[in-house]
Write a sequence for this structure.
C-alpha cells in the first residue's frame, strides 16, 4: 500500500507527542490560538501506529476521520473500526485510544479542549487481537 496525501497535508513527524505513540504519527496544527479554547490538529498515523490510552479532562475531543482506516476504543467497550467520514465524540473523563489499522494509513482531525492525561500503551497483544 502507498501513502496518500491527506486533504490538509500530512504535517511534520509528531516528535512532541512521540512518547505517547507506538509507531510514527504526523501532526499539522490547523487551529492553535490562545484566544480560543479549542485546538484543531490533523493527525496522520502510519499503518500499525496508535496512541496510548488517555483521558481528556475539563473538555472533550471530536475525531473527524478524513482518510484511511483506523480504530477507536473506550475502556470496557468493543473497538470501533473507523473509515473516512466517521465521527467520534469523546466526552470528558472517558479513557480511550485511537490509531491506524495494521495495514492502512489513517488520518483524522482532532478537535480538542481541556488537557490530556496520558496513560499506559495499548499493548502489542491487545492490538494484534483486534478483528481484521
Amino acid at each position: 500500500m502507498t501513502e496518500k496525501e491527506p486533504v490538509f497535508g500530512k504535517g511534520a513527524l509528531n516528535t512532541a507527542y512521540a512518547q505517547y505513540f507506538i509507531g510514527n504519527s504526523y501532526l499539522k496544527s490547523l487551529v492553535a490560538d490562545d484566544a480560543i479554547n479549542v485546538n484543531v490538529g490533523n493527525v496522520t498515523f502510519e499503518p500499525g501506529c496508535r496512541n496510548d490510552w488517555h483521558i481528556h479532562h475539563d473538555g472533550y475531543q471530536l475525531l473527524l476521520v478524513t482518510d484511511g482506516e483506523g480504530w477507536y476504543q473506550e475502556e470496557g467497550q468493543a473497538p470501533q473500526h473507523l473509515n473516512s467520514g466517521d465521527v467520534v465524540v469523546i466526552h470528558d473523563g472517558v479513557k480511550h485510544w485511537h490509531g491506524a489499522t495494521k495495514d492502512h494509513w489513517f488520518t483524522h482531525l482532532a478537535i480538542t479542549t481541556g488537557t490530556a492525561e496520558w496513560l499506559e500503551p495499548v499493548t502489542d497483544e491487545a492490538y494484534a487481537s483486534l478483528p481484521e
Q: What stands out?
A: The first helix runs from residue 124 to 128. The longest strand covers residues 61-74. The chain has a mean pLDDT of 94. Residues 55 and 95 are 5 Å apart (CA to CA).
